[in-house]
Design goal:
CATH superfamily of the largest domain: Histidine kinase-like ATPase, C-terminal domain
Radius of gyration: 52 Å
CATH topology of the largest domain: Heat Shock Protein 90
Bound molecules: adenosine-5'-triphosphate, magnesium ion
Largest sheet: 5 strands, antiparallel
Order of helices and strands: HHHHEEHEEEHHHEHEEHEEHHHEE
Helix content: 55-70%
Length: about 500
Amino acid sequence: MCIPNGAPATTLTIMNNNLKRITSIRFIFFLLFFLAGAAGAVSMSVGLYVSGKEDILDSSSRKLLLSYSGDLAERIGKEGFVDNPEEPVISHELRNLALLYDGRALVCDDSLRIVFDTAHEREGTYLISDAAVSAVRGHERSDVDEEGICVIGVPVIAEEGKPTAGALLYSFSEEKQMQQVSSLRNRIISLLVIFLVFLVGFGIFLSKRFSRPLMDISAAMLRLSATDRNDPIDVPVPYSEIREIRDNANRMITKLNSVDESRQAFVSNVSHELKTPMSSMKVLADSLLSQEHQSEEVYREFLSDINTEIDRENQIISDLLTLVKLEGKATSLKTEKVHINGLAEIVIKRILPLAEEQHVEVVVENQRDVYAEVDENSIIMALTNILENSVKYNKKNGSVRVTVNADWNNCFITIRDTGIGIPEESLSHLFEKFYRVDKARSRETGGSGLGLSIAYEIVKAHNGDIKVFSKLQKGTKFVITLPLVASKKEVTS
Ligand code: ATP
Ligand code: MG
């Protein structure tokens, strides 16, 4: 549609509203219903209208009438009806002929004396008309006089070769027939108009009835969008397809609610985690300021604590940024064929100082050389997070074993520790952001509960999987599965 430049806003609104109305299911349903009904009714009426006209005016109808009268005249002759006009079958048929066009049938003998009259008025009198004279002389004739009376005269012959025994005359008013036809036509038109009006009313009723559930669902959605409450749509729907739309919308609302809840939880967790190091720094700085003439040693100690808190704050922010990047749609992995055993060695080397500090032994067991198409830096980050946990949440003189293995399709990296273990009820929450089993203990170790979420997102981005098996006070086992060949979708360079 072309909207003229500078059209006033109200004109545009009216045009939009009209377009909305025309393209609505309600209108289209009404239109189809009306068109189907109207097409049927109009074609039927036109048929009746035209057949009414043909019946009277068409010459073929008149020929048919002549032939019917001729057959009847032949039977009148054969049965000797002229001499025996009481004969019931033929008199009955003559009355039927008279009824045909609301006319009159007469039978006269060869002297033009009327022996039978369907109107029972002129029996015994004589007929004087051109059609009667012609018919008695043996010629069929049909005339229409100035008053519109149509007269058909047919000779009655008793036996072939013999002179006519009389004549059959049939007369009817063509004008009267025309009047009847025209009144019939008027009735057809009035009935058609009444039917069309009824069709409009019924069409509006049906279209409203069918579109009502859709309108109700739409109104319920509008109400939802206007409020903060995300209650499910509770509209009764009798039709299965629309019921499906409602149920799917409710599923979407449930999902939106859960996304909303997790977003709120995430925001409150982020604020809390970012606030904790800040509060510690504030306490340290305040106590330094409140103490006058302190030794350089005390200043150094406080500043070193503040420095640790700054590192922690930095770590949380960079973990959050990593997570946001991994969860974003634009996650692009730079995958290449990497020696996974070598990669495990790199991670272990990084973790060794922490392991020595915690008196934990870290051993690598390479069952075979494994190469896989992975994003090296991301996988190092994921392994570091898991291995760091295995050292952090271990016991003094404990150990961590790293195993690298593969089958035809996948590579398996297993990290098994002899640490404190994880309670069963915590296992399903382990990869949630900010989740920590023992909040107080994690605080001591400086964890914020983001390490495993990052590892999980990285493995998921590789179309891999992480499984955890743990026994309290016995140890924990993480099994990372990665496809050996990166799927095309994730390969970007
Ligand atoms: P950070 O973000 O610094 O890694 P974090 O280590 O506390 O902090 P995650 O690595 O996500 O966070 O681990 C979540 C929680 O799971 C930990 O706080 C810890 O309670 C538990 N956990 C993880 N790995 C182990 C393990 N090997 N043994 C025992 N508990 C573990
Ligand atoms: Mg961790």
